[in-house]
Amino acid sequence: MTGTQWVPLALARDIAPGTSAGTMVEDAEIVVWRDTDGRAHAWEDRCPHRGMKLSFGFVRGDHIACLYHGWEFDEGGICRKIPAHPDLEVPGSICAARYGCTETGGMIWAALPLGTDPIEVPALPDAVPVRSITLEAGLITVADMLLNEENAVIEGALATLDCAHGPLAIGVQPIRPGTVALHITTRPGASAETLLAICDWAETLRRAAEKEIAA
Description:
Distance between the termini: 27 Å
Number of domains: 2
Mean pLDDT: 93
CATH architecture of the largest domain: 3-layer Sandwich
CATH topology of the largest domain: Rieske Iron-sulfur Protein
């Protein structure tokens, strides 16, 4: 990845309040979590104490706690509690590394690389989440297949196109070389039948991309 870029991490509906999930972007490990008030966060998936994945931990209010020793970090990434030392005034220098994070177009996005925050935050129209799929195929192969669809455009990590079942906006997440996740959304008001048809379209795309790689 060159320069600073907003990259989708998940469909917004898939990260419920009080939960977390681990993901990757170009081998960078990220925890995406939502506090119990509904705010989304994206951090480096590593506790600064012993390196345990924070995605293995649990969310308490606006804190996320490490599973290993229970260290708790507030929404600003600052450690606020060390259970083994309940009377300790925790130094403010103990903190988790955070990505810029926003929620738009039915997806949660992070600003990469770590430590950057683009001036222009993506402002996408309301969308209905359909599904996320993971393809064992390279980014170029996936992009070429998306561009074969009608009215297809890829700008940054967002693809917009018209499939046979209506317009789609798709967040493209490069997980690692040879693995890509697609976060698929469509316009509000789509029927249940249409949503199922889009899921079938996505599965057909996945099989075609992986077949091309295997050939």
